[in-house]
Amino acid sequence: MSADRPDLGWNGLQLLTLCVYIFMFAPIIVVVLLAFNSARTGSFPMEGFSFVWFGKLFENASIMDAFQTSLVLAVTSSFLATAIGVMAAIALIRYSFKGKAVINNLLSLPLLMPEVVLGVALLMFLKFLEQPRSYMLLLLGHTILSLPYVVLVVQARLVGMRQHYEEAAMSLGANRLQTFFAVTLPLMAPAVLGGFLFAATLSFDNITATLFWKKPGIETVPTKIFAMLRTSISPEINALGAVMIVITVALPLVGGFVVRRFAKGK
Amino acid sequence: MNAVELHRITRRFSSAVVAVDNIDLTVPAGAFVTLLGPSGCGKTTTLRMIAGLETPDEGDVMIKGNRMNEVPIHRRNLGMVFQNYALFPHKTIYDNVAFGLKYRNVGKDEIRRRVKQALDIVRLPGVEERFPAQLSGGQQQRIALARALVIEPDVLLLDEPLSALDANLREEMRVELKNIQRRIGVATVFVTHDQGEALAMSDLVVVMNKGHIEQMGAPTEVYEQPRSEFVASFLGNANFLPATVRQVASDGISVDLGAAGALLVSDAARPVSPGEAVKVVVRAEKIDIAPPGNGGLSATVADVDYLGSMARYQMELPGGHRLLSLVSLKDRALELGQSVSLQINPRHCRIL
């Protein structure tokens, strides 16, 4: 076996890895770079460095509206999904009852179902109930979409968490509710926070189902971008994209940091 | 008043699986009672029914004379120690030990005093501000004990608390646990599959098998006078010799061992009559070995297991039956194939 053969393979692998990373991140980098381009046309070469498109973004009332809608929707829907998801996970892991397997499967069904199908189905259901499309539909829809993720994340944590902690707390005189707040919730807090951030990111990003559910006139950030792209490719979109990237990347990172700090018991 | 009484308790996990089958058990005040048996014998389920973590399908659980079946675990005033300590990892040692007091309307100063006292009892003063992960396994188990004792429980329930510790520490903790229990005088139910722990610590050993109680009694009683083959084989190293009763007399029962000869037995688990086929239990460490021709049973050494301070021999009797013999070595070990005479005192044999 010659000595330089493994090196050749190793170099090849490094090159391949580099290519994959470039393919994954180059478009993102391009969007962020062009957001700072002072030229009117969103393309290379860049003419100068400027925050002008960010300024335009903040002056654009419809984009700001969309932003607000998206944020409120993300926070409320993930709050709902987390509250329901935590309770569901506890029921599924800590208790035994009739139809448990069925409920478990039903809860994760939205994961497997194409979003388009789910979007249309919920819309049809609303038609059947003779209700107009509303913000409520959007909120419920996003909650349904992110619920299985919360359930899965919290379930995984609960499975790994020995029931002995809860039994010890109860043997010492804490009732079920006191045990939940004193022991169960703190111990699964990382998973609860993780599930919440996961749900928020999913809701903030969602476009397919949102297009079906949103009332005319209401726009979230992704549907707004989609609408803007139909008329023109403005550099504002790059700026908006950059902001989206910062939010969707920073949120989980901050969450992860908080969780790690928390886990150290400080 | 008895600390715990179980009256005809049954627990079924399904129609086919009966974890605990109609058992009666009494834990006198201040007593150390051990539930001993292999895994799946129902000992842990029994403990969990006393705790209120399992509900019996039939029968009554009484604690200090009160029926507890419907009382939830957090109102039973129990101290519980688990195999894996179950200290709350997100709370300091102080908050762990103080946990039970916070649900008992105890004043702040009183809590501080009692936590300190509990940590002194388990000989770990000054660790209040640390987190469980910063302590060793043995220390964590002491904190778990302190947390269970600080609430002054009516009953202390120990679910294999020593089995997660390594061998040396386990022995040390065993002695300490027993000392603390004796000093405080709290009635204790201890679950283990380790016969050494059971014999060394208990006032009363309850040997369980397949959801039944096989035998209960003082450690010497269950060891010396096993009532069944299961008890005899679970505790210590026992030999079982198939035999036929020849004669029942006032000085003992003589049994026929076939080709191996005859044996005089002074003790029987039940009344027997001549001609009956029985089994004779002989403890491996109670067989004396003498040079051949000194009476007793003649045998040859079929296997030698040299253990340093001890030796384990397989002694083959005429007719092919083998006896395990455990001997502490003062001299050289016997050699393979050597002929010996096995002297077995009638007091050390028992008919099942």
Notable traits:
heterodimer, A: 266 residues, mainly alpha, MetI-like fold, 79% helix, globular, B: 352 residues, alpha+beta, Rossmann fold, OB fold (Dihydrolipoamide Acetyltransferase, E2P), 2 domains, 35% strand, elongated
At a glance:
The complex is a heterodimer of chains A (266) and B (352). Chain A is mostly helical and 266 residues long. Chain A is built from eleven helices and no strands.
Distance between the termini of chain B: 35 Å
Low-confidence stretches of chain B: none
Summed up, the domain count of chain B is 2
Oligomer kind: heterodimer
The tally of beta strands of chain B, per DSSP, is 21
What's the CATH first level of the largest domain in chain B? Alpha Beta
What ranges of chain A have pLDDT less than 50 throughout 5 or more consecutive residues? none
**Count of DSSP H/I helices of chain A:** 11
Look at the structure and give the CATH class of chain A: Mainly Alpha
Q: What spatial order of strands do you see in the largest sheet of chain B?
A: 6-7-8-3-9-10
Rg of chain A (CA only): 23 Å
For the largest beta-sheet of chain A, the strand count, sense and barrel status come to: none
**Global shape of chain A:** globular
CATH architecture of chain A: Orthogonal Bundle
What would CATH call the homologous superfamily of the largest domain in chain B?
Answer: P-loop containing nucleotide triphosphate hydrolases
Helix content bin of chain B: 10-25%
- Would you give the CATH topology of chain A? MetI-like fold
- Biggest sheet descriptor of chain B: 6 strands, mixed
What distance lies between the first and last C-alpha atoms of chain A, to the nearest angstrom? 54 Å
User: What is the count of structural domains of chain A?
Assistant: 1
User: What is the H/E order of chain A?
Assistant: HHHHHHHHHHH
